[in-house]
Amino acid sequence: MLYQMEVNHDPAEAALQRYVRIFPYQDDIVSYARFLLTGIKKEQGQLDLYIEKASEHWKISRITYVDKNILRVAIYEMLYSTEVPPKVAIDEALELAKKFGSEESKDFINGILDKILKDHYQKGEGN
After folding, report:
1. Runs of H (alpha helix) within 9-104
2. Which of 4, 47, 82, 86 is the most exposed place for a label (fewest CB within 10 A)?
3. Every domain of the chain and the residues it spans
């Protein structure tokens, strides 16, 4: 859904509704997906700054859509949500990277998320 939003410039709710029509889910899953989509869209600029800062030498535009959106979900869950512990968000991101990313995705994503987690929690900003 994040890919659709980025590539097609779809609003969050339109992307979610299209997906739910094809794959009906329980209300709590749809509600959490809506929470993620709207939150990530709202905080996308800040999330991308976290990614660029942690990835050093990589512009956000050079990161694949898949890796970028896996990172956005994980960072949003780590920093803006109390639903998922940060380490669980990282583990889930790594599983997604193994399944949907390139051969290098898992290590790339792990490095960025680990750096963000350390930087964020060292400053005492954790949720």
Report:
1. 12-22, 27-55, 65-80, 86-100
2. 82
3. 2-122
Architecture of domain 2-122: Orthogonal Bundle (1.10)
What's CA 2's distance to the chain center, in Å?
A: 9
pLDDT tens profile 19-72:
777 777 777 788 888 899 999 999 999 999 999 999 988 888 899 999 999 999
Distances from the Cα of 83 to the Cα of 70, 71, 86, 114, angstroms: 17, 17, 9, 19
Measured CA to CA, the distance from residue 99 to residue 36 in angstroms comes to: 20
How far is CA 52 from each of CA 1, 7, 111, rounded to the nearest angstrom?
22, 20, 12
- Evaluate whether 25 touches 46 at the Cβ level (below 8 Å): no
d(Cα 52, Cα 70) in Å, to the nearest integer?
Answer: 14
Ramachandran region, residue 77 (left: φ > 0; alpha: ψ -120 to 50; beta: rest) = alpha
Q: How far, rounded to the nearest angstrom, does the alpha carbon of residue 103 sit from its chain's CA centroid?
A: 19
pTM for this one?
A: 0.85
Give the model's pLDDT for residue 15.
79
